[in-house]
């Protein structure tokens, strides 16, 4: 069943070496790579306008600084919480399949698994594991790939980087039905079936329109309890057709605020500290940051 873990001499199958490979390992003890970002998030959970509002500035000459620093702050908070905020595709290799009947995937919340592969011991050829042999636990954090009862992990895999997994992780909000999307010039107006509860400058994802230009993630301006507007390109037909839906990113507000706090902290320390200045040390996190990320996940990947 687990023949790839039988004691086999290193240096060849002819027994020329007396060094035996290790026995089976639990997943926590299995050497594996750091998750590698394959497809980065398409947008940030904190918009430039929201960041400027937090820092109480309307200056446009700082736009380049915001555009560079917002992703850096988001990555820092993701690292500190061991999570993924906006949906991202990750890939990770590992030396061997574990004793357990599950594999934990870091950077939750888990959304889907694109592929799970093994590499042959002798040829190194990659084989994609049949998805029918496993199912996903997207509720646990970290999420897990779990073997179906009666199935086993691939055997006869190479000793280093014997497996590889690619998955999507990130939050997604609850979708709401859209009654209509109309356009005047470059501005699209969305009317939802029920009051939406959104706020101006929030990032929302519109999907389901037959006219592709209406679909995507946009920064919106709220104009009413059930209406908001956003900028649209290429003059699509109006009104939009299709099964129209909108959803927020779903990133918990405490994490978005932690990103904003970090931005303010970094902005405050961009200049040299003058003598007697009442400032925090720049190598410390801002006040309240630890409380916002206090539910961090420990011991992943």
Structure, described:
The chain is of the alpha+beta class and 301 residues long. The chain has four helices and 15 strands. The strands form three sheets. A seven-stranded antiparallel β-sheet has the order 12-11-15-9-10-14-13, with no helix packed on it. Strands 1-2-8-4-5 form a five-stranded antiparallel β-sheet, with no helix packed on it. A three-stranded antiparallel β-sheet has the order 3-7-6, with no helix packed on it. Helix 1 packs across helix 3 and helix 2 crosses helix 3. The longest helix is centred in the N-terminal third of the chain and has 19 residues.
Rg to the nearest angstrom? 24 Å
Separation of the first and last Cα atoms: 26 Å
The low-confidence runs, each spanning 5 or more residues with pLDDT under 50, are 1-20
Q: What portion of residues is helical?
A: 10-25%
Q: How do the helices and strands follow one another from N- to C-terminus?
A: EHHEEEEEEEEEEEEEEHH
- Kindly provide the name of the CATH class of the domain at 175-248: Mainly Beta
Number of strands: 15
Mean pLDDT: 86
CATH architecture of the domain at 175-248: Beta Barrel
Which homologous superfamily in CATH is the superfamily of the domain at 175-248?
Ubiquitin-activating enzyme E1, FCCH domain
Notable characteristics:
301 residues; alpha+beta; Elongation Factor Tu (Ef-tu), domain 3; seven-stranded antiparallel beta sheet; five-stranded antiparallel beta sheet; 4 helices; 16% helix; 29% strand; globular; disordered N terminus
């Amino acid at each position: 069943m687990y023949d790839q873990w039988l004691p086999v001499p290193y240096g060849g199958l002819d027994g020329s070496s007396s060094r035996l490979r290790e026995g089976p390992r639990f997943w926590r003890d299995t050497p594996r790579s750091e998750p590698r970002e394959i497809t980065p998030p398409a947008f940030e959970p904190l918009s430039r306008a929201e960041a400027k509002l937090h820092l109480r500035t309307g200056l446009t000459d700082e736009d380049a600084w915001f555009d560079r620093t917002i992703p850096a702050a988001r990555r820092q908070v993701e690292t500190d919480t061991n999570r993924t905020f906006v949906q991202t595709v990750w890939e990770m290799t590992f030396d061997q399949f574990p004793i357990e009947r599950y594999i934990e995937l870091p950077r939750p919340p888990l959304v889907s698994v694109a592929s799970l592969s093994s590499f042959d011991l002798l040829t190194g050829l990659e084989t994609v594991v049949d998805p029918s042999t496993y199912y996903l636990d997207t509720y646990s954090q970290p999420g897990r790939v779990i073997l179906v009862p009666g199935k086993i992990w691939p055997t006869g895999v190479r000793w280093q980087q014997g497996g590889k997994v690619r998955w999507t992780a990130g939050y997604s909000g609850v979708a709401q039905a859209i009654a209509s999307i109309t356009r005047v010039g470059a501005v699209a107006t969305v009317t939802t079936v029920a009051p939406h509860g959104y706020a101006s400058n929030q990032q929302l994802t519109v999907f389901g329109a037959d006219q592709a230009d209406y679909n995507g993630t946009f920064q919106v301006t709220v104009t009413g309890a059930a209406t908001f507007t956003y900028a649209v390109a290429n003059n699509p037909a109006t009104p939009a057709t299709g099964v129209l839906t909108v959803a927020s990113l779903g990133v918990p507000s405490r994490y978005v605020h932690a990103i904003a706090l970090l931005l303010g902290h970094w902005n405050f320390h961009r200049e040299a500290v003058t003598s007697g200045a009442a400032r925090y040390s720049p190598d410390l996190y801002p006040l309240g940051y630890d409380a916002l990320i206090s539910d961090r996940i420990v011991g992943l990947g």
